[in-house]
Each structure stands twice: as structure tokens, then as C-alpha cells.
Amino acid sequence: MKAFFFDQDGILYDSMPKHARAWAEVMQAHGFDFTEEDGFMNEGRTGQDVIREAIMELENREATEDEIWEIYEEKSKAFKALGEVEPVEGVVDVLRFLKKNKKEIWVVTGSGQASLFDNLNTKIGPFFDRQRMITAFDVTHGKPDPEPYLKAWDKSKYPKKDCCVIENAPLGVRSAKAAGLFTIAVNTGPLADIALWNEGADLVFPNMSELLDWLKKEASSR
Ligand code: CA
């Protein structure tokens, strides 16, 4: 494999607990029955889609553009107020190994928070290139639609068999598999592995060090 498409939150940044908490806080302040677990279940969607889906499900109506932006801005503020985020344990070793082996590193995220994806090189390490990033601003349909991963694949110019997705969320796996890509799930969150297998993950690892072991084995078997 030549190109690795990394999801951001829960794979590069250990940010999901803070995202889930910020979502629950802000949605509850707006009167919605939305828990931290709902935050994890919606992981991968763009912020706008989380709000749109929640309002449809909880109030059976379309969200207005104004309320989407108002709630999303509050959520972004609440997230930042929860403090700095750290890299996921072990992910820097994975990135270093891939870089050393001349693999392309891409970021494919539903995030619209520039404070996160613009600072990957300072917060995680010198592995990233803005030309190899697909964010919430680059797509019409976010995950679980295949568009984000199809865009990354198309831009990469590699055949699909040379591309590999690293995801942690069920909806992210659904998006990657719908794009026809080999998908490794690293289960860094509180959901059971079965949620990832059920979406068609090709492999599921409990942490980054097992992913690294697998990558090393693959590299030496060629
Ligand atoms: Ca994720």
C-alpha cells in the first residue's frame, strides 16, 4: 500500500471525549435530549450534519441554517474551553514508520475546526501536508457518505488497492467501505468492536501499537 488515509479525531487526536462532552453540553443547553454517547454514535459526521440529524430525530423538523451555525459555533467554543488535545497514544510511532517507508499520509476528516487540522504539524509531528487533507470544507456530503474518502483517493492518483483507511468510528468505516477502500479500524473509543466489524471493517485493532505491529509484518512480508 502506498497511501494511508487517516481520520483525525480519535485517530490522530485523542479528542473524542472532549467532542462528545461539548456536544452534550451545548445540545442539552438548547433543550435537546442528547448524551455523550450520542456524541460518539455521531462521530465522523460534520458538525452541521450532527445538528441537522438531531433536530430531525428529536423534533421531527428541518433545522434552520441560522440555528445550525449558532449551535455549531457554541459547540466549537465549548470544545476549545475543555483544553488542549493530545495525540492518540502510539500514533506518532505509526506515522514515523510510514514516513520512513515513504508512504503518503493523508487526513480525511469531517472536522470544520481549523484550530485542529491547521496545527497537526505542531501538535502531532511533521507528517502532514495541507495538499493532502480533505476536511468538512472540501465536501458536499460528509461521512458516512463515501464522498470524503473518494475525494482523497481521486486526489491521490493511486489505484484503490494501494490505499488504506485508518478509522475509529462506525460511520467513518461505513464511509470508507462505501468508497471501496481497505479499512483498518483502531477502536480508541468506548463502543464495542462489533460496531466496527458490522460496518465492514477489514481489520479491527484495540490500539496503535497493534496496528504498528501489523504494518511492520506487512512490510517485511514483501
Ligand atoms: Ca474519528
3D structure, described in words:
The protein is α/β, with parallel strands linked by helices and 222 residues long. 47% of the residues lie in helices and 11% in strands. Strands 3-2-1-4-5-6 form a 6-stranded parallel β-sheet. Strand 5 (182-186), helix 10 and strand 6 form a beta-alpha-beta unit. Helix 1 (16-29) crosses helix 4, helix 3 (47-59) crosses helix 4 (65-81) and helix 5 packs parallel to helix 11. The mean pLDDT is 95. Calcium ion (CA) is lined by residues 7, 9-11, 43-44, 168-169, 172.
Largest sheet: number of strands, sense, barrel closure: 6 strands, parallel
State the low-pLDDT regions, or none: none
Identify the overall geometry: globular
Percent of residues in beta strands: 5-15%
Number of strands: 6
Strand order of the largest sheet: 3-2-1-4-5-6
How many H/I helices?
11
Lay out the secondary structure.
Layout (H helix, E strand, L loop, with lengths): L2 E4 L9 H14 L6 H6 L5 H13 L5 H17 L9 H10 L3 E5 L5 H4 L2 H4 L9 E2 L12 H10 L6 E5 L2 H9 L3 E5 L7 H4 L5 E3 L2 H13 L2
The structure holds calcium ion.
The site of calcium ion has 9 residues, from loops.
Brief overview:
The protein is of the alpha/beta class.
Keywords, separated by commas or semicolons:
binds calcium ion; alpha/beta; about 45% helix; six-stranded parallel sheet; about 220 residues; globular; 11 helices
